[in-house]
Write a structure and sequence with these properties.
Distance between the termini: 27 Å
Helix content: 25-40%
CATH topology of the largest domain: Rossmann fold
Radius of gyration: 18 Å
Strand content: 15-25%
Bound molecules: ribulose-5-phosphate
Structural class: alpha/beta
Number of strands: 13
Order of helices and strands: HEHEHEEEHEEHEEHEEEE
CATH class of the largest domain: Alpha Beta
């Protein structure tokens, strides 16, 4: 397994490449996670060194919001902006069709809402996230507390191996919207569109982490130092 310093180096390289896509007067969407943190650092540099001026910035987590505001960017709620021009986000897994699993940071609901309201979605990942078929990461599903036990039982009956995501103290993790996350422990997702369709039609499910036909471009930082842009 790759050490953290090396992985951070790769995340930083992918983030730097994505920053080349940012232009003045854009409405920019900024995602969540440790890779995006490096992208926000790059935005800070562009602001400082080149006077970057964005029309508006929306983001998908309070941590990203705090970092952006610390750098002097004003963050707008998604509902206050017209269509987002470009969103840059991380991913937990991405396959050869540019479909992905997201939600490792429990921000999937806002992430998907920002993504589907963006003209262009770019994901920044290190090579460890790239797979042939979606697998290797439990699929996050955000569920309403009012029926969470029934939803969990329904998933169990379907063989989807749901597990409530917990906080370090053992309590159930609550999302920004006060819901729970059921992580589906699946060895492989043979037909992602079939599972997405089932989850989209299950009462009690708020959102799920299958992001299909959403990503336009993925920037992959390879272990050998190369940056691959896949469209
Ligand atoms: C959060 C996400 C993140 O984009 C995903 O977890 C990747 O994060 P990181 O860059 O830290 O690996 O989907 O809900």
């Amino acid at each position: 397994m790759m050490d953290k310093a090396k992985q951070d180096e790769l995340k930083k390289a992918a983030a730097k490449k994505a920053a080349e896509l940012v232009h003045d007067e854009m409405i920019l969407g900024v995602g969540t996670g440790s890779t995006v943190k490096f992208f926000i650092d790059e935005l800070g540099k562009l602001k400082e060194e080149a006077g970057l001026h964005l029309k508006a910035v929306v983001t998908t987590s309070s941590r990203s919001q705090k970092q952006l505001e610390g750098l002097g960017f004003k963050v707008s709620p998604l509902a206050d902006v017209d269509q987002v021009d470009l969103t840059v986000d991380g991913a937990d897994r991405v396959d050869s069709q540019l479909n992905g699993i997201k939600g490792g940071g429990a921000a999937l609901t806002l992430e998907k809402n920002v993504a589907v309201n963006s003209k262009k979605n770019v994901w920044i990942v290190d090579e460890s996230k790239v797979v042939d078929h979606l697998s290797g990461f439990a699929l996050p599903v955000e569920v309403l507390p009012i029926s969470c036990e029934q939803t969990k039982r329904r998933f169990e009956a379907e063989g989807l191996n749901p597990v409530f995501r917990l906080n370090p103290d053992g309590s159930r993790l609550k999302t920004h919207y006060g819901n729970y996350i059921l992580d589906l422990d699946l060895a492989r997702i043979p037909v992602p569109s079939g599972l997405a369709d089932y989850l989209d039609h299950t009462t009690g499910v708020v959102e799920h982490g299958l992001f299909l036909n959403i990503c336009d471009q993925v920037i992959i930082a390879r272990d050998n130092g190369e940056i691959e842009v896949k469209k």
